[in-house]
Amino acid sequence: MLRFGLFGTGHWAIETHGKALHAHPDAELVGVWGRNPERAAFLAERYGVPAYADVDALIDACEAIAVALPPDIQADIAARAAAAGRHLLLDKPLALTVADADRVVAAAEASGVASVIFFTQRFQPNVTAFLAATAAVGGWQHGRTTAFASIFQEGSPYGGSLWRREHGALWDIGPHALSIILPVLGRVTRVAAMDGLSGTVHLLLTHEGGATSSAALSLDAPTEAMTREFVFYGENGIETVPNGDSEPATAFGVAIDQLIEQVRTGTRDHQCDVRFGRDVVAILAAAETARTESRTVTLPA
Fold first, then answer.
1. Prediction pTM value
2. Fold entry, domain 2-120+247-270
C-alpha cells in the first residue's frame, strides 16, 4: 500500500485525483493540502483524511505525492517532495519554465524517486495501444491536431482557473497535443507559433528526421465549434487517434498503477516521467518565444 498526499482542492483534485486515490486498492490517501483552507477541509472530510496546513508536514506523512495545482506551484512542491525521497504523480504541464522543470528533474534523479505525469490520453488503454502500433508502422510525414475547448462559459468547473486564463491553450491543451504527437513523430527540433481569434494559438513543429506537425488550440472557442481531433498522415495512409474510452478518474487509476509498479520494481523509465514532462515544457516555452518574437525557434539537440 503506497501512502499518498494530495496537493490541490479544485475540481480536478476532487473528481479525478482524490476519487481515484480513494478507490485504489493499493493506494492510501493520507491527507490533503490546499491554498484555500476551507476547500482543503471540505476535500479532507469527503475522503475521511486530515487536512494539512503545512506543505512539508504532508510531504513528511506520505511516500508519494499527487498534485493538482497550477504548474508553477506544482513544480516547487514536486522538487521539495522529490528531494525528500517522495515519489511523484504530477499533472501536466510539469512547470511553466524550463528552469523550474529542470529543478524537478534534477531532484527526482538525485533521489532516485519514481515519477509519472498524468497526460490524460496517455493513460487510456485504447489510445496507448493505438500510439504504439502507429509508431511501430513508421513512415509518418505529418501530424495534425485541432483541439478547440470552451471552458469559460457559465457552469464550467475550470472557468475560474487563473493560470489557464493567463497562459491559455498553449500551456493547458498544448501538453495533451504533444503527448500524442511525440510518441509517433519523435523529438521536436524547430518550433513556430502564432495567435488567432478567440485565444487560438497555432503551432508548426519540425521533428527529427523531417516530419512536421501542426496544432490549432483554443480554450475559448465558440461552443458550436468545440472539437478534438488528432490525425497522422504518411506512407501508409491516414490514421485518426481514437478518443479515450474511460473517464479521467479511471485513467488516473491507471497512472497510479504504473507509479506503484515503478516503486515495486525499481524501474525508472516511464514514458511520461518528469524527463518527458521537461521536454514538453521546453517545446511550449519555445512556442511562447516564437509567438511573441515572430520567429522560428530551434531547440538544442
1. 0.96
2. Rossmann fold (3.40.50)
